[in-house]
Each structure stands twice: as C-alpha cells, then as structure tokens.
C-alpha cells in the first residue's frame, strides 16, 4: 500500500515536525535549568547527541518506506537512554518535584513512530518500555510520572488503532476499485459483443429462416448460439450499467449490421487525445429514411467521446430499423438532430414508428437483449452523460443523448 494513498503520509510528516519541535523544547528546558543540573556538561552532551540524531534522521522519519522497525528501535533506545541518564545528571529534588527527563516529550515521538508503522500493539509495547524507564528514573510511581506515562500510552495506542483501521479501509477501497475497473472492462467487452457478434448471429438466423432448406438449419444454430451468448452477456453485466448498442446498421444506408459509422479524415476525426467534429460522424447515418439536422459550425468533442456518442446513435437507429415499422410494413422514418449547447452536446434521435410498449425494455433485458441497456445508456454513462428515452405507443420513440463537454 502506497503511503501517499492514505492518512499515513500526513502522519509521518506530522511526526517529523513533532520530533524537531520537541527537540527544540528539550534544548530550551536544558538552557533554562542549566545551573540546577549536577552534571550540566553530561546533560549537554546527551542533548547534543539528541539534536544531531533528530536533524540527521529527518528524511528517515518523513517516509514510511525509510522509517523501518530497526530504525525505530534505535530511536526508542536513544529516548530510553536519556530517561535513564536523567538521575545521573540531575538533582533528586528536581526529579521528586516532577522535573522533566532529559529528552522530555521528545520520547513520545519514538512511541508514535511504532504506532504509525506497526499499529497499536507495537505502540503499547514501546509505551511499556518508556513507562518502565520513567518509573526507574523517578525511583517509584510518582503521580506526575504515572500521568505522563498513561498519556503517552493511551495516545499511541489510539493512533495505532486508527492507522490500522485506515489501512483496512484502504485495502477495501482498493479492492472495490479493482472490481469496478474489471466490471467496466467486462461491460465494454459485452457492448462490443452486442454490437457485432450478436447482431450478425441474429441476421444469420433471420436470413436462414427466410431462405429455408439447409440455410434454415444454419439459422437455427445461429439462433441457439445467439441465445446462449446473450445469456452469458446479461449474466456478467449489471443492469444499471447496460446501455443501447452502437455501431449497428443504419436505416437507409448500406452499412453492415456491425459497422461503425465511417469517420472523416484526420482533421475531422481527430486523434484519441484531440478534438473531433461530431457532425462528420453522424452525417454517415443520413440516408433515404434518416434525416440529419446539424448546426452550421463544428460541434467538437474529444475524439473518443465523439465516437462513443456516434456509436450510441447508431444503436438507436438500428433499433428503429429492426423494430419500428409503419402501417404498411415499411421501415419507419428517423430524424437526427444535433445541438451544440454551452456545456453539452445533445443528439436527439426520433422516429415515427409504433413506439415501445410499456415494459418491453425490461422484458428485453431479462431475455438478455441488452441493446438499450448496454449500447446506449452504458456508453453515455461512461461519458458522464445521460440517455433519456421517451416513447408513446402509436406516436414513435425519441432518444435524447447528452454528453458534457467537460
């Protein structure tokens, strides 16, 4: 687990600042009480070592990778040495009066290091060692000594426990993110399968049934494979992730069932990292039964988003071609309207077919027919946009696709 992913790295930085500040505090206490020490030079020598150690190890403490358990053990040893040296260089009267040890509150930094690095159990063990050293230096269980020891112990255990909980939460979050990434990739693959393989199998089934003979048997086998593949796709994709398919054949055009709309040259199409004029992609869908209305100026989107939007439009038109028929049986007329709004690109696909009966989309999803769910709504959701479908029986269907520009 990278330290930068969690609360750990700020804690290490805080510990670094704590060590430097408390080192300065210990030096200030020594300077203030210099004349009261029995051996001021001995105390000064220890504090000099403490200052050099603290400043020389600033980088070690600022990173979880560099602050290893052996280093923390040496850090704790420095603190314990200062505590046990206090009765040697200070007067018993000052010690009995609750005077600070040589390292003073710098000692807590060593214990907190164990709490952050190894958790509350190691922090508790380090606290016990510090407590034992303080009791030994004070010559007994003085009230101030017990108070200070309990304060350090409780604080370090609490911080160690919080760090352990944070680490567990991060592992859960990382696992959830991996699952989400895998789910999105599975949805993308399912979308591609729906836009190509399933449509081809469905076409083979229809053509085989129409031709008859040996072709009818081939169509029957294709239908069985289509049903099995639809079951596999629908069982591996969450319903809310589904969306209508894209890149399907277009009414009035000669595109094959799995075709992706033709794209213009480099300037119109754009590279994956560049901009693309949506008009150039959608104009490929215009035909004898598809009318396309567009603004006079270019309508730009990132190239990948523009292609996904065009694929979703293709899926909507394929639904018109497959399901919408006029009273005499001819294909319904479809209209595409492209609008360039200040913060979004909106494409409306409307037809004059019989509309979608209530509950038909839900039944289709249950049967594994994920056209609207995968190829339209799923694509728009992945783009951060929305797909709204309005259908009134006898009055046609309208699909509004909205993609934010940013």
UniProtKB/TrEMBL annotation:
Q: Which residues form a coiled coil?
A: none
**Record bears the keyword Transmembrane helix:** yes
Q: Spell out the Low complexity composition-biased ranges.
A: 244-262
Domain Histidine kinase/HSP90-like ATPase: from-to ranges: 307-405
Domain named DUF5931 is located at 3-174
- GO molecular function, a single term: kinase activity
Q: Which CDD domains match?
A: HATPase_UhpB-NarQ-NarX-like
The chain positions of domain Signal transduction histidine kinase subgroup 3 dimerisation and phosphoacceptor read 185-232
Gene3D superfamilies in the cross-refs: 1.20.5.1930, Histidine kinase-like ATPase, C-terminal domain
Which portions of the sequence form the region Disordered?
244-274
* Top-level lineage group: Bacteria
Q: Where are the transmembrane segments?
A: 12-31, 37-58, 70-89, 122-142, 148-166
Keyword set for this entry?
Kinase, Membrane, Transferase, Transmembrane, Transmembrane helix, Two-component regulatory system
Q: PANTHER family of this UniProt entry?
A: NITRATE/NITRITE SENSOR PROTEIN NARX-RELATED, OXYGEN SENSOR HISTIDINE KINASE NREB
**What is this protein's record name?**
MacS family sensor histidine kinase
UniProt organism field: Streptomyces chitinivorans
